[in-house]
UniProtKB/TrEMBL annotation:
Species the sequence originates in: Mesobacillus zeae
Name of protein: Glyoxalase
Any Pfam family the entry gives: Glyoxalase
Domain VOC: 6-125
PANTHER family: PTHR39434, VOC DOMAIN-CONTAINING PROTEIN
Amino acid sequence: MRETNKVFHLAIPCKDLDETLQFYKKLGCRPARRYEDRVTFDFFGDQLVCHLNPEEVDEKPKMYPRHFGVTFVQREEFESLLKKAEQSELPFFQELMVRFPGKREEHMTFFLIDPANNLLEFKFYHDRSMLY
């Protein structure tokens, strides 16, 4: 299990710092630092660094295997983020859906796509023991 004295770090490419900044701010991520070639965010308690690297942008992204995101333990937080994404008119790659219906690992999920075609998944498991 994760200890609270550790922060996960993820670095991804972006094609434009300004549009990246606007997307993640609308998602509720606090900008921490901005440099000429990158911007760093508090991404739901972890560190996300978007490096300016337009030639690394995936022109045809697929949900699997490359995406990242957050698994919520509180359904209300999951639903609140979904509502925020809809109200902010953030681009969905995959609308809200239920995966593995009727099975123990059933969960609700949706995917957003950022301006550099990075895919973000947000999900909530009905059975908390299925988080890992």
